[in-house]
Amino acid sequence: MHRLTGVILTNNEEHNVEDCIASLRWADEVVVFDSGSTDRTVERAQTAGARVIHHPFENYSAQRQAALDAVEAEWIFFVDADERVTPELAVEVREKIERPERGWWVPRHNYIFGHRMRGTGWYPDYQLRLLHRASAHYDVTRPVHEFAEIEGETGRLEHPLVHYNYDTAAQFHAKQRRYAAMEGQRRAVEGLLPKPWTYLSGPVRHFVWRLFTERGYRDGLHGLRLSLLMAYYEFVTWQHAARAARRGE
Questions:
Q1: Are 124 and 45 part of one and the same domain?
Q2: Fewer CB in a 10 Å sphere around the end CB: N or C, the chain?
Q3: For every one of its 249 residues, what pLDDT tens digit does the chain have, with 9 covering 90 and above?
Q4: What H or E segment, with its residue span, contains residue 127?
Q5: Structural domain for 8, as ranges
Q6: Total domain count for the chain?
Q7: Hey, what's the torsion of the CAs at 200, 228, 11, 16, to 10 degrees?
Q8: CA angle 129, 9, 154 (to 5 degrees)
């Protein structure tokens, strides 16, 4: 059984998958967990030396849980296709899996439109990605912004993943529309429905949180722009929640 497997969730990531695999070559095994790519993702992953597992996509939490169930390594390190592991992070991961903690939070350097974020909710942006497999479990009813439940203590790593989030505005808006729809449905299922004033108060609170609490001002006009955009998508999310409730979803 492998001590540590790097797992990359993919769907049409032919432009990212090879570089991501290359940044994980220090792991005992690299698995590409693919949800039906129609481009050359699978071919390129196999050529780069990764093992490919096919699994249909239901939601992000279910996909990560399926990967946990399919891989037999003692430790799993989840890395998205648009993320890269630095040599310093690789060394730190190897050191930390010898400790008693059962999960590790990893900070990220997020690049949005070529700008490395210093705040606005995208830094330090800790993600629980390094998991002792037998101690971790995902709530598969949570469709987006998945979160692993850990039996045991967790810790925080020092060195960050490098995350190339969005190169273009079109890419940003496409993903935020998808996230808003999924999050809106989750809120409806949980009975979190908007009041008439929520369509204003929710986005305003979200804007304040991004720009001030999460120090979006450190990113200058870029932070202001993204705070406004994410406030708008908070409004869209509540619209989706109300529609899902009316449809009985």
A1: yes
A2: N
A3: 689 999 999 999 999 999 999 999 999 999 999 999 999 999 999 999 999 999 999 989 999 999 999 999 999 999 999 999 999 999 999 999 999 999 999 999 999 999 999 999 999 999 999 999 999 999 988 777 788 999 999 999 999 999 999 999 999 999 999 999 999 999 999 999 999 999 999 999 999 999 999 999 999 999 999 999 999 999 999 999 999 999 876
A4: strand 127-132
A5: 4-165
A6: 2
A7: -170
A8: 10
The last residue of one of the domains, among 146, 165, 184, is 165
CA distance 24 to 46: 14
Instruction: Calculate the dihedral angle through the C-alpha atoms of 223, 226, 114, 47, rounding to the nearest 10 degrees.
Output: 140
Side-chain half-sphere of 156: how many Cα atoms within 13 Å? 6
Torsion of CA 222, 179, 137, 30, to 10 degrees: -70
Q: Which among 134, 150, 165 is the end of a domain?
A: 165
